[in-house]
Design brief:
38% of the residues are buried. The longest helix has 22 residues, at 125-146. The protein has two domains: 3-97, Nucleic acid-binding proteins (OB fold (Dihydrolipoamide Acetyltransferase, E2P), Beta Barrel); 118-418, Bira Bifunctional Protein, Domain 2 (BirA Bifunctional Protein, domain 2), CATH 3.30.930.10. The chain contains 13 helices and 18 strands. Helix content is 28%, strand content 29%. It is elongated, with a radius of gyration of 26 Å. The strands form three sheets. Strands 7, 11, 12, 13, 14, 15, 16, 17 and 18 form a nine-stranded mixed beta sheet that branches. The chain has a five-stranded mixed β-barrel with strand order 2-3-4-6-5. It has helices at residues 55-58, 111-116, 118-121, 125-146, 186-196, 232-253, 255-260, 266-269, 280-289, 302-310, 364-373, 382-386, 402-410; strands spanning 2-4, 16-28, 32-38, 43-49, 69-78, 86-97, 151-152, 158-159, 171-174, 177-181, 198-206, 219-228, 277-279, 316-322, 332-333, 336-347, 352-359, 395-401. The chain is of the alpha+beta class. The structure holds 4-amino-1,4-dioxobutan-2-aminium adenosine-5'-monophosphate (4AD) and magnesium ion.
């Protein structure tokens, strides 16, 4: 009789196994009672009959509280009616700890209460499903880049460079020197491609986002590919391919979780390339035809992105933004100096921007000019400018936010549930 996981019960029908887990629920009907156990890989029911177990085991029922840790031994049987399709004829139960009264019950709780108890809330069925989808999304992302010839090279978290503007920098002291937590790994990716051609970095990034929205965390995970000899069009193709791969991966590998989340999977089945590509100016026209009174030159807010994406039946790519609202490193459109060769991919169903990126300025003198226009310290960018002195090439890349992507795949409203321990303006604990 060996240690087994609920997910593997199919391989053990007719055999005795031991399952280690936590009490999810129980039901009693006189001479028989049922223990619903969860072990992280699934849920299953143990049938505890008086004649099959020692008396002290049968008598455990009233004492077993939700979340008590137990090992349950028994014979595996196939049973379609049972949760997970199998059940155990229990022969023994070993209690590791009787849990205190669990604060999270089946009744509705407020968000603040659940977030304060995030360390316990993680165990709930829905949260478990969302975070499993997160893990699968990460696998899909890695699979996409690894199988397309990208080299994974991670970039530092302590940095002296502001990449995405100076307003959202987290500053810290670094042995007497001023340092920032990385907002993006992009600048380092740009060095790495000159050695490897196609690279990606994947890690946590930090932004002092002072607004409370359902789309912003202060610590979020981003995957950032960067490609040498790549223009804006090719870059959009890589982004589109990634999103299709993630949606398909979720449909193939997260069926159970998407069911728990009651996700309308037909929305994900529709995700197919090519995505419509529209310019910023066309997007502004869409907003204005829908009565939004949006002025050319402004940045889209979450509400604007929702209105734009509702015009399409799937993701949409918006490109060529006003240069004035974009980062210093973006290349200008040779056909119109006012425009930057940036692109955002908006997820459908109102999930907004999941990808942001574009073509980079690769001319040394133009870049120096931009650094100064943006009032960035030229000194800190000497190494970055070097890249334009030693064999500079046209290049592009983008960043995809993991939590926004996971929220969309799961169909959940707030991205704080798409990461185990979210960091937001008023949330550093747990
Ligand atoms: O558009 P962003 O700011 O682009 C960059 O950082 C580029 N340097 C990436 C690159 O080209 N290598 O951020 C990229 C993506 C957004 O589309 C969004 O999905 C996510 O990162 N993101 C956030 N997610 C959660 N909370 C925040 N505060 C986020 N800010 C950006
Ligand atoms: Mg962006």
């Amino acid at each position: 009789m060996g240690k087994t996981y609920i997910a593997d019960l199919a391989d053990h029908v007719g055999k005795e196994v031991i399952l280690n887990g936590w009490v999810y629920n129980k039901r009693s009907s006189g001479k028989i009672w049922f223990l619903i156990l969860r072990d992280g890989t699934g849920y299953t029911q143990g049938v505890v009959a008086q004649e099959n177990v020692p008396n002290e085991v049968f008598d455990l029922e009233p004492a077993l509280t939700q979340e008590s840790s137990v090992s349950m031994a028994g014979l595996v049987k196939k049973d379609k009616r049972s949760i997970g399709g199998y059940e155990l004829d229990v022969s023994n139960i070993k209690v590791h700890q009787i849990a205190e009264e669990y604060p999270i019950t089946k009744k509705e709780h407020g968000t603040a209460f659940l977030m304060d108890n995030r360390h316990l809330w993680l165990r709930s069925r829905k949260q478990n499903a969302v975070l499993k989808v997160r893990a699968e999304t990460v696998r899909a992302i890695r699979d996409y880049f690894d199988s397309n010839g990208f080299v994974n090279l991670d970039t530092p978290i302590f940095t002296a460079n502001a990449c995405e503007g100076t307003t959202t920098l987290f500053e810290t002291e670094y042995f007497g020197q001023k340092a920032f937590l990385a907002q993006s790994g992009q600048l380092y990716n740009e060095a790495n491609i000159m050695s490897f051609g196609k690279v990606y970095c994947f890690g946590p990034t930090f932004r002092a986002e002072k607004s409370k929205t359902r789309r912003h965390l202060t610590e979020f995970w981003m995957v950032e590919p960067e490609i040498a000899y790549c223009d804006l069009d090719e870059n959009m193709g890589w982004g589109e391919g990634l999103i299709c791969h993630i949606a398909e991966w979720a449909l193939n590998n997260c069926q159970e979780q998407l069911e728990v989340l009651e996700r309308d999977t037909s929305q994900l089945e529709k995700i197919k390339s090519p995505f419509p590509r529209i310019s910023y100016t066309e997007a502004v026209d869409i907003l204005n035809t829908k009565g939004e009174k949006f002025e050319w030159g402004g940045d889209f807010g979450g509400g604007d992105e929702t209105v734009i994406s509702e015009h399409f039946d799937g993701p949409v790519i918006v490109h060529r933004f006003p240069a004035a609202i974009k980062a210093f490193y973006m290349k200008r459109d040779p056909e119109n100096e006012k425009l930057a060769l940036g692109m955002d991919i908006l997820a459908p169903e109102g999930y907004g921007e999941v990808i942001g990126g574009g073509e980079r300025e690769h001319d040394h003198d133009t870049l120096v000019k931009r650094i100064n226009e943006h009032k960035l310290p030229e000194d800190a960018f000497q190494w970055y400018l070097d890249l334009r002195k030693y064999g500079t090439v046209p290049h592009s890349g983008f960043g995809l936010g993991v939590e926004r992507t996971v929220s969309w795949i799961c169909g959940i409203t707030h991205l704080r549930e798409a990461i185990p321990f979210p960091r937001m303006i008023y949330r550093l604990e747990p």
